[in-house]
Design goal:
By secondary structure, this protein is α+β, with helices and mostly antiparallel strands. The protein is 29% helix and 23% strand. The protein has a domain at 40-103: Ubiquitin-like (UB roll) (Roll). Mean pLDDT is 76; it is low at 1-31.
């Protein structure tokens, strides 16, 4: 067997149940019930105003999935705190209290 590859068929352990790898896969499949497009929460576009150090204004938008408006804004605020988002807005301050959100169609 090649390094890093699992056997094509794994036998169940003598004590019953699934091998550890299959048990993990089964939990992962049920962990996010909306992973199927048929039941995915709506996609929201949340936009928040930004201000650069020199005073110039702008906005940064985030596409997030959430069932309700408030959850969409909370998810976008969480995204805005990532290193990637901060780098994208070039260090500008973001104002989550003035966030707006619309459903994406």
């Amino acid at each position: 067997m090649a390094l890093g590859h699992a056997p094509a068929v794994a036998a169940a352990p003598a004590t019953g149940g699934l091998p550890a790898q299959q048990q993990h896969s089964a939990r992962t499949a049920t962990a996010a019930p909306w992973s199927s497009p048929a039941v995915a929460p709506p996609l929201w576009v949340v936009t928040m105003p930004t201000t650069l150090r020199d005073g110039r204004a702008g906005t940064q938008s985030f596409a997030v999935r959430a069932r309700i408006l408030q959850d969409a804004i909370i998810a976008a605020v969480a995204c805005s705190g990532t290193d990637h988002a901060l780098l994208h807005r070039r260090g500008a301050r973001i104002d989550p209290l003035r966030a707006s959100a619309v459903l994406h169609h």
